[in-house]
Model the fold of this input.
Amino acid sequence: MDSTRSLSTHSALARATLCALAMGMVACSDTRAAEAPSADQARSADEPWFGVMLPPGFEPHALHVISNRPAAPAVVPEGERQYRELAGDAIQAHLETIVGFSRESEETTEVGEGQIWGRVTGFPSGAKTIEWAVSEFRATGIADVELQQFD
Done:
């Protein structure tokens, strides 16, 4: 009888253990569900993630405003008034010429469908800019100006 009794005791103990495990699993699953954040409690994008702040979102730079503002006057030191090559008006004229090559590139959609424009090397806008610079050097009296072509 002792063996029958110990077998039934063993069986009852096994059932009690299984029941306790099952109840524990149910209790744990309810606890986790209760701890899960609701949609209202969800972490916002500005809060730290595991203690580390997230980087700021992407914000493209603002475009510069193009205006008709005149060139700033050049400050010429005393005794050098005769040297007017770098006066604001002269530089402004050169700047407008160079920017004109870029604007022509944009207007003619020289590269692709107009996404890229400017004085692009290997395209007519780049070549025109280089030819203009060479002619300006020669016009100022620089005799040894060479234009190298790369094929």
In short: The chain has a mean pLDDT of 78. The radius of gyration is 40 Å.
